[in-house]
Backbone:
C-alpha cells in the first residue's frame, strides 16, 4: 500500500517528497524499524515513542505518526501525520493497512470481569454448528478449528489483532469472537474493528492496580458499547447486556445499536435455574413470552448466564433459539473453567481460573448449590493464592470469599512475580481471625505441596477445587516463567 492511500483517512498531513512510496509494514517498536516502514510514536506508561524519533528516521521510514510535531527531526523528508492520539491512529491504520478485514466478518466483542472466555467458546460452538467457521481470540489462545496461535495477552495490540483477522479469514473464518479487556479498550487496541455485537457479562473488583477506581474500570468497559459499536458502520448492531449486574444496567449504548438484556430480571432473555449437578445445569429461558428448556453440561448459574449471553449474540447472526440450545447441549466446556480433573484421591477435583473475589465466590457457590441439590454432605477443599504486583486490595476479599464458601482453605502462591510470596499470603489472611485460621486454614507457600495436601486430606466424595490459574501451564516467579500446571499436579498425585 502507498503512503497516500494509507493516510487518506486523515484529511491533513505532510506528504514529504515521496507520497507514492510503498509501505512495507506498520510498527510501534523502534528496534524493528526498517526502510519504508511506518512508525507510530505511541506514548506508554513507561516509554514514549517520541523520544526515539531521531534514531528511527536514520532507518528511512516512509512515514511517522506523532502527537508532537516538535519531536520530528527537521531533516526527515517522509510523510508526517500529526494526530491527537497515536494509539487510536495505530488501530485505524492497522485495519486499513490489512484491508479492513472486519468489514467482511461477523465480529463479536465480549467484555466484563468474569465469563469472557466461556462466552466466546459458547458462541464459537453455536456459530460453528450453524455452519459459520468461527475464530476465537482470548485469554487461552487464538484458534480456528484445529489451527492455534499462541498469545500472551487477553487482547493483543492492534497490529496483531488485525493481522490475526486476516489469517483467520484466509483459512475460512466467517465469524470472529474476541475477548476485549478493559486495558485494551482504554488503550484503543480494538478501535479499528467493525463490531456487529458487543457483550457485557458483569463487573466486579479487578485491575484496580491499573484503573483508578471502579468507575474508571467501568468507563473503560463501556467504550465497547458507547463508542466502538456506534463507529463500526455495520448495518445492524446489538449490545447484549447482563441486566442483573448493577453496572450492566447503567451501560450507555450508542445510537443505532439494539440493546438486548439477559438475566433473571430481563425482558428479552429471561432465565431461571431448574437443577444442577456435576454433569451440568438445567434451565428455562423465556424469549418474547415463549418458553424454552435448556441444558448445558457445565454446572453453575453463572454458566447459564454465559449461555444466555452467547444465545443473545448468536440470535443476531440469525441462529434460532432452538438451534442455540441444541448446540449448547454438547458444549465441551472451557480449559481451566471449573474443569474436572480425573483423580483417585478425592471424589471430585477441579481447576478454575477464578482470580477475583467475585469469581471465587461464584465457583464456590456452585459447589455448595450442587451439595444442596444432591443432599450430599461432601466437604469442599479450596486451594488458592493471589498474584504478585497486582491489586493488593482484593487479597483479603479473596480470603473472605474462601472462608465463606469452603470447608477447608489452603492458602498458597499464585504468580508471585517480584513480590515475596509469604508477604502476599500475609496480606491475604490479614483480616482473618486467628481462631478461624487455626480451625480451617492451612498455609503452604509451595503451590504443589498445597495441592497435594488438599488431595491427601480429602475423603472419597469430597471436592477439591484449585483456583486462580485455570488453564495456565506456568508460574511467574520473579520475572521468569516456570512450567507449572495445577491439572498436572492433580493427575500426578493420584496417578
Residues:
Amino acid at each position: 500500500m502507498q503512503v497516500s492511500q494509507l493516510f487518506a483517512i486523515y484529511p491533513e498531513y505532510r506528504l514529504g517528497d515521496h507520497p507514492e512510496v510503498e509501505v512495507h509494514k506498520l510498527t510501534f517498536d523502534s528496534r524493528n524499524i526498517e526502510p519504508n516502514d511506518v512508525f507510530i510514536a505511541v506514548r506508554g506508561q513507561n516509554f514514549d515513542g517520541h523520544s526515539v524519533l531521531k534514531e528511527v528516521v536514520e532507518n528511512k521510514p516512509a512515514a511517522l505518526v506523532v502527537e508532537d510535531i516538535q519531536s520530528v527531526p527537521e531533516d526527515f523528508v517522509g510523510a508526517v501525520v500529526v494526530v491527537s492520539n497515536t494509539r487510536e491512529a495505530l488501530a485505524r491504520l492497522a485495519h486499513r493497512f490489512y484491508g479492513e478485514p472486519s468489514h467482511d466478518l461477523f465480529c463479536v466483542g465480549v467484555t466484563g470481569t468474569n465469563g469472557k472466555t466461556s462466552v466466546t467458546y459458547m458462541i464459537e460452538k453455536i456459530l460453528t454448528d450453524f455452519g459459520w467457521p468461527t475464530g476465537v481470540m482470548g485469554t487461552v489462545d487464538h484458534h480456528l478449528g484445529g489451527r492455534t496461535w499462541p498469545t500472551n495477552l487477553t487482547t493483543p495490540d492492534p497490529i496483531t489483532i488485525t493481522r490475526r483477522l486476516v489469517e483467520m479469514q484466509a483459512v475460512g473464518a466467517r465469524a470472529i469472537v474476541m475477548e476485549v479487556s478493559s486495558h485494551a479498550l482504554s488503550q484503543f487496541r480494538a478501535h479499528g474493528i467493525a463490531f456487529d455485537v458487543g457483550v457485557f457479562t458483569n463487573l466486579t473488583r479487578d485491575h484496580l492496580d491499573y484503573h483508578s477506581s471502579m468507575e474508571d474500570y467501568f468507563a473503560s468497559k463501556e467504550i465497547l458499547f458507547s463508542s466502538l459499536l456506534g463507529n463500526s458502520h455495520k448495518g445492524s448492531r446489538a449490545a447484549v447486556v447482563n441486566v442483573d449486574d448493577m453496572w450492566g444496567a447503567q451501560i450507555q449504548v450508542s445510537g443505532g445499536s439494539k440493546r438486548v438484556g439477559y438475566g433473571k430480571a430481563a425482558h428479552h432473555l429471561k432465565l431461571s435455574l431448574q437443577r444442577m449437578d456435576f454433569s451440568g445445569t438445567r434451565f428455562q429461558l423465556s424469549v418474547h413470552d415463549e418458553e424454552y428448556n435448556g441444558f448445558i453440561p457445565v454446572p453453575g448459574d453463572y454458566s447459564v448466564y454465559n449461555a444466555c449471553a452467547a444465545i443473545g449474540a448468536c440470535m443476531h447472526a440469525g441462529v434460532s433459539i432452538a438451534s442455540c440450545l441444541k448446540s449448547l447441549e454438547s458444549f465441551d466446556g472451557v480449559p481451566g473453567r471449573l474443569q474436572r480433573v480425573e483423580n483417585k484421591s478425592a471424589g471430585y477435583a477441579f481447576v478454575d481460573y477464578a482470580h477475583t473475589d467475585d469469581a471465587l465466590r461464584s465457583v464456590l457457590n456452585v459447589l455448595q448449590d450442587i451439595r444442596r441439590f444432591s443432599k450430599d454432605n461432601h466437604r469442599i477443599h479450596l486451594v488458592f493464592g493471589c498474584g504478585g504486583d497486582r491489586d493488593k486490595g482484593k487479597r483479603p476479599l479473596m480470603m473472605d470469599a474462601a472462608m465463606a464458601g469452603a470447608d477447608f482453605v489452603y492458602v498458597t502462591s499464585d504468580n508471585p512475580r517480584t513480590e515475596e510470596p509469604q508477604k502476599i499470603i500475609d496480606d491475604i489472611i490479614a483480616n482473618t481471625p486467628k481462631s478461624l485460621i487455626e480451625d480451617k486454614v492451612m498455609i503452604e507457600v509451595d503451590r504443589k505441596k498445597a495441592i497435594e495436601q488438599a488431595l491427601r486430606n480429602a475423603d472419597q466424595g469430597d471436592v477439591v477445587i484449585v483456583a486462580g490459574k485455570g488453564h495456565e501451564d506456568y508460574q511467574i516467579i520473579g520475572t521468569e516463567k516456570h512450567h507449572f500446571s495445577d491439572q498436572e499436579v492433580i493427575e500426578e498425585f493420584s496417578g
About this structure: The CA atoms of residues 435 and 441 lie 10 Å apart. The domain at 3-96 is CATH 3.40.1390.10 (Udp-n-acetylmuramoylalanyl-d-glutamate--2,6- Diaminopimelate Ligase; Chain: A, domain 1). The chain has a mean pLDDT of 93.
